[in-house]
Amino acid sequence: MKGRTFLAVFLAYLVPGAGHLYLGRRARAITFFCIVVLMFVIGVAIDGDLYTLGHSNGSILRLLAALGSIGAGVIYWIANGMGMHGDVTSITFEHGTAFTITAGLMNLLLMLDVFDIAQGRKE
Asked: For the residues of the chain, what is the DSSP string, one character each?
């Protein structure tokens, strides 16, 4: 694996779109940043939950949800540090949680895209 590949994938995890920007794909970077951040912010705004590894209680589904949420990168860590966990009594709780998990999963897929571009497998 090339040195720039590792850096590009790491940047892609930290900030959605940063890996694409590092590789010179400016339009993709802006688009992906807007999509992931907007989905995550909407999820938190409508009382979505942020799953954490510490609260998985041995449940594989909660663990997978936590890994999905954490995939959003630094925006997850900021929101989690600010205590932005949804209100389970809210009628939009499940939808918001789905948005936060989906944003994280999308960012994980974008990391794979960055990997392929950096390795020269994709334009």
From this structure: --HHHHHHHHHHHHSTTHHHHHTT-HHHHHHHHHHHHHHHHHHHHTT-----GGG-TT-HHHHHHHHHHHTTTHHHHHHHHTT----TTSTTHHHHHHHHHHHHHHHHHHHHHHHHHHTTS--
